[in-house]
Amino acid sequence: MSGPGQGPSRRDSYFKSGARASGSRSNLHSGSRISFALNTTSDPSSEDMQQTSILLNAIAGPTSEDPFSHALSASDFTDFLEMTNRRPSHHSKDSFAGSPEDNDMQSSFLAFTMSQSFLQPSGEMHAVSRPSITSAFLKVSRADADMGPETTEVPSVSRLSPHRAPSRISSTCSQVQKYIQYFKVSMLQVLNVKNSMKDALERALKRNSVGSFIPVMPTYVCALPDGTERGNFLALEMTQTFVKALLLNITDEKPQSAQMRSKVFSITENIMKSTVDQLFEFLAECLEAFLREVGTKEKSFPLGFCFPFACKHVSLNQCFLQKATKNFRWSGMEGKDVAEELQKAINQHCKNYQIEVVAVVNDTVGAMLSGCSKDTICEVGLVIVLFPCLGILSLTLVFRYVADAGTNCCYMEQAQEIPRINEKEGRMCLNTEWGAFGSAGDLDDLVTEFDLLMDKQTMDPGSQRFEKLIGSLYICDTVRIFLANLAEKGELFNGVLTPSLLTRGIFMLQDIAEIIDEKSGLSKAKNLLLRLGMVASNQDCFYMQKLCQAIFYRSANLCAAGLAAVLTRIATAQNRPKLKINVAVDGVLFNNHKQYRDMLEEALKSLVPDYTITFVPSHGNGALGVVMATAAAVRQKNQQQQVAQVLAPFRLSVTELERLQNLMRLEMIKGLKQDETATVRMLPTFVRHLPDGTERGQFLALDLGGTNFRVLMVELKDPKDGGVHITSEVYTVPPKIAQSSATEYSYELLSFLQLFDHIVSCIVDFQTKHKMLGIVLPLGFTFSFPCRQIGLDKGILLAWTKGFNAKDCVGEDAVRLLREAVQRQQHVDLDVVAIVNDTVGTMMACAYVDPKCEIGLIVGTGSNTCYMEEMKNVDAVEGNEGLMCINMEWGAFGDSGCLDNFMTSFDVRVDAESLNAGHQRFEKLISGMYLGEIVRYILLELMSRKVLFCGQDSPMLQTKGIFPTKFLSDVEDSQGEEHVCAMLEEFKLRITAEDARVVKEVCRTVSSRAAKFCGAGIAAVVEKIRTNRQLEKLEVTVGVDGTLYKVHPRFSKELHETVALLAPKCHVKFLLSEDGSGKGAALVAAVVPKH
Question: Which of 127, 233, 627, 870 sits 20 to 30 Å CA-CA off 40?
Fold first, then answer.
């Protein structure tokens, strides 16, 4: 016999109608209530016996927690039997149905017992746990009229009507199939959901409120674990039912065998409804008890906190609670800084320890981070129902808890793409909160009437639409509502609506997963329904299986659509068309049910066929995830500190730039006065006039400024006739010639013969190709090396730069060497009228377009500047009238040691290992030929400190010259870290996104310093021109050429900003030269005859 508060056991469930007089009321406990009524069946083949089967579902009676429950006792039940038995005893067709009045009474009774047994006055569903549900079968029999006259007085028992009259079988089948069909989704619909979610995600990132969007939230988690984390770390994980404290110890000695200890503390009802102070006091006390139990000798710990409520982050350890959910009701908590409140409580209750709250994350981020390891980096975190199966716990509490659980996704987004944050470098984990997708109607074509009925019973009707189509608890409840609705309509279970179908949470995910199995699903469905006290036909079980399969399939496909949307966003934003990515997954749907995984993966193959996706199980270890977030944050902070320390000498203040500008100005004055100590030589070019745009004719130009040189034919026409037309060919100077010595030449001639004979042979080749042999044209010779000009067509080479080191050329007149080489050739004649360097040529080419161009700047492989100086200031040339172009040769600025305070240890190493150590120091600080080497030495230093590349060594990084200017430009121009990773993987290094960010920062710092150094130099030049002319305001144009200026994504901008900062009284315009070194030399040749 059942005890108080329990349902009747299956042993006690049988009694006969004839036992009424002998105490049948005692067969059911007086406190029991009948939550379902009667379903009778008759055997039409037997006229002697009419058997009525009454299905009773008896559950616990009223309790102290539920005083409003209405109990239906056994006596009430037998009284009801008396009423139903007062019928005629004939066996006509109408006798089975009873009179309309009887049917109405019976239906009313059914409705009364179900509503009174399961609904409290508030309308809230009463909690019924599965173990408390039992079934009692009552068989009521009576003899037929043949048994004797005395028995004929016994009232007959008529068949009791179901709650709704069943439809015909054929129409019922088609109707049920139609309802099930509503849950089926096509791949086109799934694709549309994917595209809609991707659009909504991008709208959210752009803060576009038009249309549907996903409420993305920054987490400020910028670092993922890379396996180099070391130290002791604490974590607190708060869930709906418990708090978990965890201690992780990672040592240098055995990083692969980290030690981890943890302890779980239950959350009581009082804590769920406590004050702010009480909550965090409880958390701090749990932490202190855990540390005391562990007995660690360490006293200082960084701590991470996994807090599963909606918070607004403003930093990794500063977040404000937006809303307490999951049945937690903390007074005064909303708007509080969670990390600050926890820190205060820890400081008060854990006084024996120094604990710093470093990170606060949610469970989705924790899932992503717990999937990371030394060899596996997860960039996406996916949660599909994080709560466990709670078994016999109160199902009402389950529903309250998971109202905010279900599904979510986070991923690593480029920080510059995330709105409302100050971080613009690197990546940050973005919490999508995608469960809210669909609230604007995007999913309306997928939502069935049963989904809407389920939604009305949740704590947040009308919201979290996407989550309610995916989450396992919602899946189970949708199945229940479908069955209950169709049973009520008489289309399932012979029209019998049982109390189990009115009980939220009666179906578990495991039940649904077993039912969808094609082999054993039907028997599982039959057994489940039987356990729930339901009599189901094979057809009912078949429909239940098809329903579960459709809903399960829909959930998996919609989840795949959401994940595909996120992955497509990543691939598009980071230009990774063949995306290869790891996704950390948590939640019972994915981790515990292979069918669901298979469905999801199959859908992904159709949605994103070009992506390679690896799923990494997280297994609900949020504490491990948050402790890894903490460890990664600590490592990143240490990394940033060391990187900042290394790069600090490269970061120049305005005061330092002004000092550099003044030093340049002083060196310019010294050079103009021919001071022997001057490092800026200020060489006269004998170019005294700028083109005015009226120059016409054909001219040859020779452009030698590096290992590649050009031969050009420049034709100057009236703009109406086509303007400037240039024909050119590119030739190469082999290294053995560029760096040759006298002994290397086969005929024991001097090496300059090799170089200039090679140049003339290339000119002959050009004239032959373009049918110009025998035609003598004026030639301008661009010779981009330091020269001391003693005439317009006479230039003495002072030093080789840019990797040239041909012997026996320094001190020689370059024009004479070229003319002598021409004489050694037969049938060749050239008229060399001027020698200029590339800087002068650039100025001349831009002046042809803009008359205000009086400065030329080259920032490429090397660097130099020229400008138009007052003749009265040029001591090297007689005369005081007019202007003369001065070739500054500013690359040598600092050779005297005046820049020593600006040079870092890396600059010193680059200089020492260059071909011209101790010379061209300023050029080595700003030109493209040397910036890559500076970057390489910085990376080697960071590697030695084990803050880059996971502490690996790279022999390839020891190779000189592996980073050209283009490398810096490509690194800094990349929108994401993936491109940088791909570039660095060529050096056989294991690269993380954080490494790529550091490399990018190093490149940017080095190039930024170069641009600012260059800007300080130009500021000195324009200020010199302004003061020469005693102008309050100067307007001047700088003609610019060089790959660093042209190609680098930020160099020109920083250069312009620095000039504007240091020379505020000068309005400086920068004009990019078009073929300055070639066209400019031809223009010099064109200007000479005019003057």
Answer: 127
H/E element holding 846? Answer: helix 838-847
What's the CA gap between 32 and 501, in Å, rounded?
19
DSSP for 790-841 reads EETTEEEE----TT---TT-TTSBHHHHHHHHHHTSTT---EEEEEE-HHHH
Q: Quick one: tokens of 445?
A: 């074509």
C-alpha span between 612 and 578 (Å, rounded): 7
Query: How would you class 268 by CB atoms within 10 Å of its CB: exposed for 0-12, middle for 13-18, buried for 19 or more?
Result: exposed
Q: Is 465 a catalytic residue?
A: no
pLDDT in tens, 317-355: 998 887 655 455 666 677 889 999 999 999 999 999 999
Q: Which residues contact 751 (CB under 8 A, 6 or more apart)?
A: 737, 740, 741, 742, 744, 745, 806, 807, 808, 809
Quick check: is 300 catalytic? no
675-706: pLDDT as tens digits: 989 999 999 999 999 998 888 889 999 988 77
Rounded CA-CA distance 999/977 in Å is 10
Catalytic residue among 710, 936, 1004, 1009: 710
Q: Is the dihedral of CA 285, 287, 291, 293 positive or negative?
A: positive
Active site residue 1041: no
**Set 838, 907, 911, 1075: catalytic member:** 838
Selection from 935, 905, 924 nearest residue 1003 by Cα: 935
**Tally of CB atoms within 10 A around 4:** 11
CB 721 within 8 A of CB 730: no
Q: Are 705 and 782 in contact (CB under 8 A)?
A: yes
Q: Are strands 612-617 and 580-586 parallel, antiparallel or unpaired?
A: parallel
| Chain-centroid distance, C-alpha 5 | 54
Neighbours of 922 (CB within 10 A): 27
Of the residues 17, 117, 784, 927, which is catalytic?
784
Q: Is the pTM of this model over 0.85?
A: no
Output the six-digit token pair for 326. 């999951």
- Between 708 and 1050, the higher pLDDT residue: 1050
